[in-house]
């Protein structure tokens, strides 16, 4: 079932090592078919260089595995919460990519210091709090998703397709699995340059709002005209 | 038209990923034919690994597209202003290369800390101010060029073939498209080493003027004799 | 003798350059056959691109060379002490990998700042003291092992399969040679992200204990269920 | 003439890009034949990927070019001074490698923070002062060599085969051209880890003298026994 989606999700997963975003199996990509409400996700613990499209696991939004020889990624409950709440997204990525994870470990959101950031993400990339012990004990992976959804309940998850989980790492999402990987790459570049820019100038301030607006809205929304 | 120039500009564009200066499509190279007053530039939003010489777009200095299946890079109005004002240059590069962009985001020019810098660029690499909201709203890409040209109106754009745009990224130029890419690579190396050198010694001062002069003028001008 | 183990140890050694953990010959991997009490280790001073499985040296736990055309790694006495004291390990790695060595040179243990660390190593990765002049003069390489063993005498070497030797570099171990290399890669990633996270937030604190517990124990012990 | 030496020096030059020590043509290697007193050096300004053994230039110690289609590297007078004064060396390397150059630009010698450094270089890697304007004007490249030789006049250039020239970059030397490149690689690794180790622990002190002694003398001199 969902052979085309499995292929797409497989290819999106393989972009993670290509872009240097994963070591070993530290990442996973999923994609959803909104018509059937089923999503496809990387299996748990399979090495990237042994992965095949047929290894992808098919899940429903109640968390039932419908097809697959392996267990789904242990982060599956997080993906599921995001798919349920963010109805306009088609793909999700989780990695431990080195720069985004360094910010997550530092417990800081990433200020918008420049146009590379503003071209894709509007405003500061948030870092959500740690789960409490009770939340961890009850359902760690699910509650990670619940916390992210709660953070975005009064915010726009389309113009900010990324979040850092404190002491853990990033999640990104997008219109489909490939677009979510694209945003994971952008996040990593932005995280790297934001850190270095603070080290070059500890008094640095975010980019002027009108510059952020110009770059975001020349690529997104009704008046977009951008491409380099 | 301009088949040879299109080939050169195509090849110069392909050097950007080779030298690690671009992620996705975040960069563009152009080259000008001074006899006809026409310039050739990368199309907008085309992936580097799908680019062909025939995709290059031919423009005149009034901003009219004369040939090309795609739109020209959205930074074309910036290139155009530089070509009009800097009559001795033959090529221009814009990237979001990681170290130069970190300095641009930090809002600082890059002091000349050593001979690697002085071999190619004379003095501090400038960082020009943000555009005002009015300048952005009126014509963002054009006014980026106008601002750079205004900065250089009483300075030598030949001995300083690079500029940082605050909260954005670098532009470099040169005698032709390849030379402009060469300067983009130099800028990135210099930006990286300048940052690290400040972190190793926060009290570091620019290189002595006589050393800067020696290195710049042994490679440039009437008395040049250099090559390693 | 031990042809299968020699092949495994050879392959594990070759993973060091693949993962960017060694320059020149600055590293070595060994593996032990607990039935015979013999271990196999990289020869001394042989370049990685000239290494063959047949070059591996077979040693007993009294330090006698039983087979091999070359001398064993000069770090062999350190490996031997670890094998004698840590009865549940099957492989050992020593490298001068750049980030772990930078922490070792800095004389600091690596705090657990995130889940990447907690997934594999429980708590702060220790940095053991310098050997005294007397300990160096008596038997430097052996006493390096004695010092590590002494540090772990009241600690769990299974849940902390890594140590930094002050002003020197890391040792890691594992269930076999490959697993020890896996831990060396994890250590390097963790060391890199811990340094950057401190630079991004100098007031950063270790990850909450309940988060460390969750990540370590979802992958290790009776209740493990993890895989990404 | 000196075909074997030209081949060796060519191959040693080609190791610079392989080890990531050069951008463009920013480096050069030479080797000397002590019997004839002639040395062979990279030509000036030739790209590495176009270099051939036959392009190497043969020089005598009076600075006369005896063979070669190109000019010798413009750093030739520096090499020449080192060969004249350091009678036991057989090869010299100059690069603008990024970490060593960052220390040179910072104007600081590199303290010995660990055994990676002590395995090859005994004590702090020195950073020599800027040349005066008079020294630059008189004979810049020659006086760079004179300054280095003067610094080492009461020191051992064998146990310290490297120097940083302030605001410029490193020179290393060795028993032959390949060994000099080996030392250039070591210097770069050591420079990188020394910087990071200071950032991880700003109060870091050099490695204990007895540890430096142990590592240097287990690899060098009459009692050497080392190999990993």
UniProtKB/TrEMBL annotation, chains A, B, C, D:
Gene Ontology biological process terms from the UniProt entry: arabinose catabolic process
UniProt superkingdom: Bacteria
Metabolic or biological pathway, per its Swiss-Prot or TrEMBL entry: Carbohydrate degradation; L-arabinose degradation via L-ribulose; D-xylulose 5-phosphate from L-arabinose (bacterial route): step 3/3
Short name of any one Pfam family annotated for the protein: Aldolase_II
SMART domains found in the cross-reference section: Aldolase_II
Gene Ontology cellular-component annotations: cytosol
EC numbers: 5.1.3.4
Keywords, alphabetical: Arabinose catabolism, Carbohydrate metabolism, Isomerase, Metal-binding, Zinc
Reactions this protein catalyses: L-ribulose 5-phosphate = D-xylulose 5-phosphate
Ranges where the Class II aldolase/adducin N-terminal domain occurs: 7-195
Cofactor: Zn(2+)
One Gene Ontology MF term: L-ribulose-phosphate 4-epimerase activity
Top EC group: isomerase
Family recorded in the similarity comment: Belongs to the aldolase class II family. AraD/FucA subfamily.
Function noted in UniProt: Involved in the degradation of L-arabinose. Catalyzes the interconversion of L-ribulose 5-phosphate (LRu5P) and D-xylulose 5-phosphate (D-Xu5P) via a retroaldol/aldol mechanism (carbon-carbon bond cleavage analogous to a class II aldolase reaction).
Protein name per UniProt: L-ribulose-5-phosphate 4-epimerase
């Amino acid at each position: 079932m969902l052979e085309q989606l499995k292929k797409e999700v497989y290819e999106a997963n393989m972009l993670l090592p290509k872009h240097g975003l994963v070591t070993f199996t530290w990442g996973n990509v999923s994609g959803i078919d909104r018509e059937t409400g089923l999503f496809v996700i990387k299996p748990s613990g399979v090495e990237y260089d042994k992965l095949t499209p047929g290894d992808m696991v098919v899940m429903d939004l109640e968390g039932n595995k419908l097809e697959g020889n392996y267990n789904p990624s242990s982060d599956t409950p997080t993906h599921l919460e995001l798919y349920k709440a963010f109805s306009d997204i088609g793909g999700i990525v989780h990695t431990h990519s080195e720069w985004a994870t360094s910010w997550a470990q530092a417990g800081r959101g990433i200020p918008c210091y420049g146009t590379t950031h503003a071209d894709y993400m509007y405003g500061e990339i948030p870092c959500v709090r740690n789960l409490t012990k009770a939340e961890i004990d009850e359902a760690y992976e699910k509650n990670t998703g619940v916390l992210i959804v709660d953070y975005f309940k009064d915010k726009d998850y389309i113009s900010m397709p990324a979040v850092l989980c404190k002491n853990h790492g990033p999640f990104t999402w997008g219109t489909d699995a490939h677009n979510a990987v694209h945003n994971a790459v952008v996040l990593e570049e932005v995280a790297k340059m934001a850190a270095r820019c603070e080290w070059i100038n500890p008094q640095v301030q975010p980019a002027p709002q009108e510059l952020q607006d110009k770059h975001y809205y020349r690529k997104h929304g009704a008046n977009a005209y951008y491409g380099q």
